[in-house]
Amino acid sequence: MAETILNVKQLQKEYTGEITYKALKGIDFHLDENEFVAVMGPSGSGKTTFLNCISTIDRPTNGFITINSKSPYELNDEELAKFRRTELGFVFQDFNLVHTLTIEENILLPLALDSVNEKEMRRRLAEIANFLGIREILKKRTFEISGGQKQRVAIARAVIHEPSLLLADEPTGNLDSKSVNSVMTLFESINKTFNTAILMVTHDAYVASFAQRVIFIKDGVLYNEIHRGENKQQFYQEIMDTLTFLGGGRHEL
């Protein structure tokens, strides 16, 4: 039986101001090891807030989150920083690469922060660069490579420390269609090769169809979920049908 990596119980998030806004209204969710799950929903549904609470960017108002049986919100600042570096990997739409560093230095940054020895850093760099097909650009700067290559570099940086959970927020939002297919095939490969659980927010049904399961959030609650079978095209159509029922097309969600 698969071990649960992420467990979410009655997750709630409120933003207070002149008007209190309830972004999440009590979500229960679990993610098993090696599982790849996409999160979808209309704009303003709470899907990014959901990801931000799990990634410790946002603190929940109520509810519980455990990652590998640890509650990140019970850790002090130093412990939390280490927890994020060791347990979690992050991939964003805008790559978040450091422009003053080479590609190699960008990828090695998480290991350098944890004072990993040089030999181990070089071993992991070689392994991940070969896997992602980016060996030839390691000495280049960020302005010398394409968008698809930048996202591969961002993925390399996110997984070089071998996290158990990879969190991705619209990872293909800035890519052309050819790069989208390439990057999503990489996500599938990472999930299978490194046994990394992946939780990905996306508005794109095609991107979501690479996942094994898609959950839909609407108005801050878990609305529905569908599972991928043997037929990927049928899974894509089920995603599209659910999005249409929710009230929007592929590019509106």
Structure description:
It is a single chain. The chain is an alpha/beta fold and 253 residues long. The protein has a domain at 4-95 and 164-247: Rossmann fold, CATH 3.40.50. 37% of the residues lie in helices and 25% in strands. It has helices spanning 47-54, 77-87, 103-113, 118-132, 147-159, 177-193, 205-208, 232-246, and strands spanning 4-15, 21-32, 36-40, 62-67, 88-92, 165-169, 197-201, 213-218, 221-227. Strands 5-6-7-3-8-9 form a six-stranded mixed β-sheet, with helices on both faces. A three-stranded antiparallel β-sheet has the order 2-1-4, with helices on one face. Strand 8 and strand 9 form a beta hairpin. Helix 3 packs parallel to helix 5 (147-159). The two termini are 34 Å apart. Residues 249-253 have low confidence and may be disordered.
